[in-house]
Write a structure and sequence with these properties.
Helix content: over 70%
Largest sheet: none
Structural class: mainly alpha
Length: 260
């Protein structure tokens, strides 16, 4: 009996020793794992802070930033300027010259009809080429006016080519430009459409600035330089607008489907 009791004691001692050993090893491993996890947690945010600016810098495109500013701000200002120029001087200039009120009304009607025709064309066709062509009509109109005044050939009918400059109003093309600009961004088509609408709202300020600038500048130029100054100013605005459209068309991403 004593021998059995001593054997039982020795076995209990050995089991207790093994339990202590395993417990200590498990405690050490848990401490090591906790230390490692804390080190990893402290390192990961630093790595993320270093990686996020790099990713932002890699995703930023100066080309897209420039074209966005041109489409949202510069294009509405120039389009509003070119389309509002005739309203500030044409009626007064016609009535002061050889034409009368009836002629002035007819030319204004023709000008508005040209604007309506331009809007209709842009509802049927979309693309940068259409924008180039319509703006070129306004450029040629003011160029023809300047040539008529300088040469004296049909100088009394200077308002006829000005009536055609209403074709140069191409603001609906802004939506086309924005859709091409945003077509590569992440998100659904609804997200792209919503973002495009937000940018169009931002451009309304540019439209107001362009209108105010046109009315102020054309009145001052007409009073100081007459019809010659008006022709040169209109030619300059149309040239800058056409150059802006060329720049936008060049910098925009390739269109998935461009009808023209």
């Amino acid at each position: 009996f004593l021998q059995r009791l001593s054997a039982t004691r020795s076995s209990l001692r050995s089991s207790i020793t093994s339990l202590r050993t395993s417990t200590s090893s498990m405690g050490r491993s848990s401490v090591r794992s906790s230390v490692r996890s804390s080190v990893e947690l402290s390192v990961v945010p630093e790595q993320k802070e270093q990686e996020e600016p790099a990713e932002a810098a890699a995703g930023f495109s100066w080309r897209l930033w420039v074209v966005k500013k041109l489409v949202v701000h510069a294009f509405p200002i120039l389009d509003a300027s070119i389309s509002r120029l005739p309203f500030a001087f044409m009626t007064i200039a016609i009535t002061e010259g050889a034409g009368g009120k009836l002629v002035a009304c007819g030319i204004l009607f023709s000008y508005q009809s040209a604007r309506a025709a331009s809007q209709y064309i842009q509802t049927c066709y979309t693309g940068t080429k259409i924008s180039y062509v319509l703006t070129s009509v306004g450029l040629l109109g003011y160029a023809a006016m300047l040539v008529m005044l300088l040469t004296g050939l049909g100088a009394d009918l200077w308002y006829v080519p000005v009536a055609l400059t209403g074709m140069a109003e191409t603001l609906p093309m802004q939506q086309h430009f924005l859709m091409r600009l945003l077509q590569g961004s992440a998100g659904s088509i609804d997200d792209v459409t919503d973002r495009s609408r937000e940018l169009v709202k931002q451009s309304h300020t540019g439209t107001g600035i362009g209108s105010a600038t046109a009315f102020f500048s054309i009145t001052q130029v007409y009073q100081t330089f007459g019809l010659y100054g008006v022709a040169i100013l209109g030619l300059s605005v149309a040239s800058v607008k056409l150059s802006t459209e060329f720049t936008i068309g060049t910098l925009l991403p390739a269109a998935s489907s461009d009808t023209v």
